Structure formats: structure tokens, C-alpha cells
Amino acid sequence: MDNQSLHILHIEDDKFQHAYIKSMLMRGHIAVDSLYWAQTLKSGHDILKNHPIDVVLLDLMLPDSREMDTFLSIRTSASNLPVIIMSGLSDARLAQEAVKHGAQDFLVKGKVDEYTLIRSIQYAIERKKSEVTLNESQKRYQTLFESSTDAIFIATETTIFDCNHASVFMFKVNSKLDLIDINPTELSPELQPNGENSAEAVKRKTMEAIVHGSCYFEWLFKRFDDTTFFADVVLTAFTFDDTQLLQARIHDITTRKKALQALEESEARLKSLFNTIQTGIVIIDSESFIVESLNPVASQLIGKNQTEIIGQVCHDIICSGIESECPSSGPNISFYNVESVLSAKNGKIIPILKSSVPIEIDGKLKILLTFLDISEIKAAQDAVKNKERQLQEVNTQLTATLQQLKQTQASLIQNEKLASIGQLAAGVAHELNNPLGFVTNNFTALKNYAKVISQYLASVQNFFDQCSHGTSEISSDIIKEMQVLRKQKKIDFIFNDMNDLLDESTTGFERIISIVQGLRDFSRVDNDGNRENHDLNKALQDTLMVARNEIKYVADVSTEFGDIPSVMCNGGEINQVILNILVNAAQAISEQKRQEPGHIQIKTYLDPPFVVIEIRDDGPGIPDKIRHKIFDPFFTTKEVGKGTGLGLNISYDIVVNRHQGELNVESTPGVGTTFIIKLPIEPNRNSKQREN
After folding, report:
1. Which run of H or of E encompasses 381?
2. CA distances from 371 to 201, 282, 308 (A)
3. I need a labelling partner for 50 at 20 to 30 A (CA). Which of 16, 78, 313, 527 fits?
4. Which residue(s) pair with 32 in the sheet?
5. Phi first, then psi: what are they for 366, rounded to 5°?
């Protein structure tokens, strides 16, 4: 013990006993800086609270406390101080109980001398220091023991008697009690992965730890829920109170195992990829340019086996070049990708795509060289170039053909228009012949009437001449003669009939003018193919007039014209579409040879952004098997001479392609057919370009 000055508290109600203790301390070889005296337990607590104390001399029998209650009270207030019991009672039971509860010594009053007192104080202080140190050491150990994320077991060869909280989580138990007092072999499956019996292996590892102090091994454990996991185990042997004990520190390596397994699988995949990829791969030392490894494809392309290539300088085997010209040489190795050629062993020149990239393997800089045989790609490129030349030639031919087709299409449209008008020419002529016939007859009658009137006027002129020269007098005979002549010549009838003939002729001329104007509007010969606002209701009326003779003997026509806006279109082309559909409807009804006339219904209405024309007939309808063909060129069901097979095809092209509209057909065999024409009110500005 160091020669330090002590602060001693003496709790004793007998002043003579206190004086006796004080005299022994003064005579003894011990440095006492302060000796505090308390006659009651309460005053002793006050001194402990207000003064530094190194040791307490305590009498158990005090005015305000007795026996063990006295000691326990002081120990509670000064748990870190050594307490020596000094009592007049020579009760061994009380002494043992006090020591058991933390007293450092028990001295009987009247039987202690100064040597015994001083030695007891010194030993008490030293023992307390050792006790505090031990407690602190135990606390640190317990903290480390419990804070470890590894499971820690303290066990004999056959029984676990302590474990930390990490063990509870690792082995999936409810508390430490589930692990304490069990045999360590219960935490292992019957067999380890190497086939060894777990119980035998535990004995062997235990003996190894006892002999060598510790041992390390990997172990497969079994949890209480029968799941297993791998762990690293450090088994340490030590002796405590002459008992051989073992400490097992268990570290779960499931994650590491999975990572290692994943790494092994990755390496296996990389090795498989290295050996099977259809690209030559060569690994070269960056300093010596010696080939260190390569895959089978590289060996095959070079034309040598791997033993012939490994250890050789890459310039001599692969590039047939010199080191100073190698893109991978020099202090700054970088990635490059070039087309090159490979001279194989058999002398064959192979075009390749070669890439080089620096990589680090085991801490050393290497060059990863890859080359891909592009013979087929080169051949394909040559083939593509040849094909491109051929396509260019074909494209030139197609351009010329397209131009011819456009010209042919224009001719077909014009020819179809002429064919349509040609088919209707007789009907139009008949329509013109009726008014022209009675106009001609009236003109003949008027010509005859003019002769009679001329003769009558000559007689009247003669009468006036006679009167003007005074050669004769106006007599009743002359007047009578003139009246007889007027009656004979039927002058009054002629004048009346002439008015009727002129009125009839005027009507005939108006009819002729109407037919001619309608035919002119229908044909639009003055339009030159340009677009303008077109009145579809007027177009339908003009077309009906042109086709009237074709329709009137086979069908009645009813119209329902809606309030529709003008449409920007090529009027002549749209009139041709309407005519084609109307004539087809009339001819289809005519082929039925019906007793009663059929019916054609024409309807117009607005369906934004379209104006719609519906032409419905009650003819035979179109059979389902040919309905999809009706817009095909040259397809017709009419007998020879009644159709070109181009009418509906050209109509479809005019409406859909040239005007961005729609031309649809709905038909039920035996009931009739409806053609629906939809024309956009304002066609797209690019429609004209597509038309051209």
C-alpha cells in the first residue's frame, strides 16, 4: 500500500472506545490525515456525504440503528468504500453475514491491538481496490461479452453454462435459458458437409483446443427451427477454479458463403464465356508483350494450339508487326478499336475487328486483346454494296416506270370518262333530239307562214299603192276582196299560231341549252384538272341529267339534298365518280328485267370534316365472295361491251388517293347496294403533292 494519508470515519457511540481506537492509530505506523467520529448512523451519513473517506470503522449497535441494518445502510451510501465491522459481540454468524454482504473484516472490541487494527485497515483498503478493479474488469468483460455480434458460449466438454444475447438471435431461441445446460453437440446436424460425425468432430476439436490452447475451424450449425448455417469458430480452453472450461466464439459466415458461392459461379460463368464466346481473346503482359493466355477461338483463328502461342511475343504471333508501332505500347496504354487482318498459319488472310484495352489482373497491368472474324460481315457488306447498285438501277427504272404509270393513269381516267360519255352519247342525243325535233318542225311551219304572210303583204302593198296614187276609189268591193284574201290566207290563224310556235321553240331552245350546259358542267373541259369549290348538289343534278336516258327506263330517282358546303375538289373527277356509280346502279337494276321500275335514292349530308354522298339502289346487290374485288382494276361482272372494269377502280383512286376521302360499299344480296362517298371539306395541303 502506498504511504498516503488516510481519511478514516469511525462510527461509534462509545467515546471511550473511540479514544482507544484513536490512540492505536496514532501509535501505529500509518499516516492518518483525518479521523472523523460519528456517534449515530445519521451523523455518519452526513460525514460520508460532505468529506472524502478512505475507510469506515463501523459499530453495528448504534442509538438509531442495529446489527445488519446498520451495515447495509452504510454500504448503500458508500458502496465503493471498505468497511471494517467493530463490534462487542463475538457472534460468528453475524460476522459471516456481514462479510458475505461486503464487509472487508470483522474485529471484536477488546480483542484487537494496534497491529491487528492497522493491518486490517491496510488489507481492507487493498482488498477493496482489488475488488473494484475486478468488478470493473468483470463489467468490461461482460460488456464485451454481451455487445459482441458473434455468439459466445462458455462451456465444459459436455455442457453450456453461459452464453451472450447474440447466441439467442443466432440460434433463433426465446432466451438464454433455452441454450444453458444443453450439450454443444445438440447445436449441430448429425453429419458435417465432409461426412464426419458432428459429435466425434466436437470431441476432436475440444481436445485440440485443450492441447494447443485454442483452435480455429469452420462448422455447420443447426438452429432450433432446424435451419442450418455455416460459421467460423474460435475455440479457446482456459481453467477457472480448477475447472477446465471452453469459450467458443461463433461468427455467422452465411453471407460470406453466399458471396463466395456467387463469386465461384461468376468465375465459372466467366470461364465458360471465355472458352465459348465466338470472339478471340488474348491476355498479354503489358511490359514484355508475351501472350499469357488465350481462348480456343483465338487459337483456332491463329491456326496454332495454345501451347505454341503462350509464351510468345504477340507481335510475332498475332499482328506480325513491331513493338514500337503497337497502339498498346508506350507508357499510356489506352483502348483502341480498329479493323485489321490476321495471317493464319495456313497463310490465309482473315479480316478481323481488333480491340485492345488495359486491365488489371492480380495487381498487374495487362492488355486484353480481342479480335472478331469479320469475313462474313465483309462478304455481306460487299453483297450489300452490289445489291445497292442493283437497287439504284431498279430505282431508276421504277422512277421512269412511275412516270409512265402517271401518264397512263391520266390517260385511263380520260379514256374512262370518254367511255362513260360514249356509252351515254345515244341517251344524250335522244335527250337533245326531242326539243330539237319540235323546234325544227316549228321552224318549218314558221317558214311556210312567212311565205303566206309575204304574199298577203304584197297584196296589201298593192292596195296601198293604188290608194296612194288616187287611181281608184276605195270601194266596198276592194275591201271585200281584201277580207276574202285575209280569210283565204288564214292570216288571223297564222298570227295566233306563230305566237304558240315561238313560245314552244323558246322552250325547246332552253331545254337544249340546259342539256348542253349540264353536259359542259359535267365534263368540266375548262377546268384543266385544277381544284376549286364544287357544289356537290349541283354536280348530282348535272350528272343525273347526263345519265337521265340511261336511268329513266329502269328506275325512279329520288333525291334528298342536305344543306352542305362547297367542297374543294376537282369537279370533273368527282362528277365522273358519281356517273360511274349511277350508271352501275341503273345497269344492275336493268339486268334483273323487272316488271316494275327500280329505285335509286340519292342523299347528301354533312358529317364533319366530311361531306357525304349516299347512292342507294334496290338492285340485286353484290355477292359476298366478290365484294372485296369490286375496286380492283379490270374486274367487272358485266357482259362484253358494257364495261371496262376500270370505273370503280378509278373512282376509288379519285376519292381516296387524290382527294383523301373514303369510298365504301354496303350491300345485301337480293336487297340492294349503297355506295358511300366521303369528301373532306378542306383537303390536306399535301394531297395535291401526293396526287402528282
Report:
1. helix 375-469
2. 54, 9, 19
3. 16
4. 6
5. -125, 170
Cα radius of gyration rounded to whole Å, the chain: 65
Report the DSSP pairing between strands 610-617 and 672-680: antiparallel
Q: For 650, phi and psi rounded to 5 degrees?
A: -65, -40
Cα(438)–Cα(509) distance, rounded to whole angstroms?
Answer: 10
Give the type of residue at 362: D
In the predicted model, is pLDDT for residue 690 greater than 50?
Answer: no
In which residue are the cell numbers 455455416 written?
230
Average pLDDT, the chain: 80
> What is the rounded distance in angstroms from the CA atom of residue 620 to the CA atom of residue 598?
10
Q: Which three cell numbers stand for residue 408?
A: 397512263
Determine contact, residues 365/382, Cβ cutoff 8 Å: no
> What pLDDT score does 473 carry?
57
Listed range (262-266, 443-447, 463-467, 491-495) with the worst mean pLDDT: 463-467
C-alpha cell at 413: 381516267
3-state DSSP call for residue 91? Answer: coil
Q: At what angle do helices 67-77 and 41-50 cross, to 10 degrees?
A: 10
pLDDT for position 275: 77
The span from the CA of 120 to the CA of 117, in Å, is 5
The predicted model gives 102-115 an average pLDDT of 81
**Own/partner pairs for 260-268, CB < 8 Å, 24+ apart?**
none
Residues in the chain: 692
